[in-house]
Input
Amino acid sequence: MLKVKNLKKLYGQFEALKGISFEIERGSIFSLLGPNGAGKTTTVEILEGLRKKTEGEIYYFGKKTEFVSREIKEKIGVCLQKTELFKELTVIETLKLFRGFYKRGFEPEAILNLVGLKEKAKSRVKNLSGGQYQRLVLGLSFINDPELIFLDEPTTGLDPQSRRHVWEIIRNFKNQGKTIFLTTHYMEEAEKLADIVCIIDNGEIIESGSPQNLIEKSNLNVIVEVPKNEKTRHLGKIFNNKVIIETKDVRKTIQEILKVGIENFIVRHPTLEDVFLRLTGKGLRD
Ligand SMILES: Nc1ncnc2c1ncn2[C@@H]1O[C@H](COP(=O)(O)OP(=O)(O)OP(=O)(O)O)[C@@H](O)[C@H]1O
Output
């Protein structure tokens, strides 16, 4: 569906992308996961034709693509990180307006159902909540019935409930046979939604695979989390005000923790966040 080989982007002297490669299978959710400034938006906007690449090859639908043509744009949907809509239009008017940009696509009413905004059809955009606004933006990315949809950090700034709602919509897209390119800095989002995750840091892909495969490949053991204080800070890696201890021998680790007087600890399986911490030595939101 989409293949990228050795993609590089320079902003002046600064190498924002250092030659990244990946391939996205039809019908899958592909996630580019990385911290702020890793190069996610740069990658997405090059693929959408909004920025120029410095070097590298892009293949869309099996064909090498030098620029993103009108024909390709008809087949892709885009949800940018910051999408400005006309505040005075109603939800349904907005959908009709965007539908008019394309030759083919969904009926605006069908999109309302898909993103759960039927009751808000006649509300003005300026009166929507943050989560409703984002759902409208998601619906707009789907209006031309695209084969491939780019979602650039679609849940940033949303509360947990709205985020879950957006996840459901993304799963709905997938169930309709669409391919999704999702960028996120929420590891939980990538872990829950993605078939394949590429972890990007400083313009380089440092690991890729299914979430489960990444966790298995990292050879992480059981994780024990304790609060960070003077007694615990030497026990493991510090992250988000906690000390993260990787261990093969949970019993021994717990004995050590109890010995220093800590009784509130959590024992859990490793997550993508731990994989990221192991690979980069830092957290995703540092
Ligand atoms: N137009 C630009 N000119 C110069 N540097 C830029 C430009 N756009 C991005 N950068 C730099 O390139 C790097 C990658 O930025 P990019 O926006 O792609 O990261 P990101 O992973 O999308 O981050 P975020 O999660 O914050 O959106 C950053 O160091 C950024 O400062």
Observations:
- The chain has a mean pLDDT of 89.
- The longest helix spans residues 160-175.
